[in-house]
Amino acid sequence: MESIWEDEIRFKSELKKSVSKMNFNYSKKPLVYISHPFLTHGSPKDNLNAVSKVLSDLVLRYKDQFIFISPIHNFGTLDGKLNYEDGLKICLDLLERCDGIIMCGDYIHSNGCMKEMELAVKKGLQIWKLEDFK
Length: 134
What we know:
alpha/beta; 4 strands; globular; 4-stranded parallel sheet
């Protein structure tokens, strides 16, 4: 009888093999990460509302040129379930997959946004301010 760990190791090995055989048809449009404070200024709810408007406006205006992604929308429900460092790491992992970043809101005073910008510079990503899209 196999242990739970052996089952898990076998599952992960099989999953890795199946994923490596997949032929993904990715869009040619650049994937753009929306960086916006979440916990720094205002409540998380206020910041979610603000970035929701930004995301909506960008998608409606530039849907043919870009794919936009918001880590607040992807991971905001994990607030209070992860410590700050783990939450930021998940966001930075997502940013690693992107082609560019848009800096929004009061990003200058947000430690998370500044870490995202630092990674974007290090990776040579295109960096915009929201005003560049107005």
